[in-house]
């Protein structure tokens, strides 16, 4: 017995046990914290890598869209079949099929009206990007010349248009899978 009246063996044993449980709990908590930090580090690294790949894809697809747009949206009645075939070469999926359909429908009208359309990209920006798919908004000047029935001189017109290209990564280069034109004057234009 001790001076306070308690058994000596019980007091001496209780203090080391509570310290060992505290040490085990602290070590377990630190181990859990280290595991969580490791997982967060891996997730952050993967997200950073995807972000860098998306930025690279955006730059590549933006350059491709700027280069493809004049070819895909311009044509001349004297070379309409070759123009549509060239445009179809930049397309994939339903859009490529659509260019095939345009050959059947558009060629007679373009030849009859002797239409020449020239598209020039004046600005472009990426709207959304992943490593495999990029959406690009293009601002263009569209110059059109066509012979209107009953007129001796061709009618000439220049419009400010917008187009949205959705490009997907092909095996060798970017391809346009969706094309939508937003015809009309730009706001404030």
TrEMBL record:
Identify the domain of life. Bacteria
Give the primary localization class: membrane
Give the residue spans that cross the bilayer.
Answer: 20-46
Keywords in alphabetical order, please: Membrane, Transmembrane, Transmembrane helix
Q: Where in the cell is it found?
A: Membrane
- The entry's protein name is Mce-associated membrane protein
- Higher taxonomy: Bacteria, Bacillati, Actinomycetota, Actinomycetes, Streptosporangiales
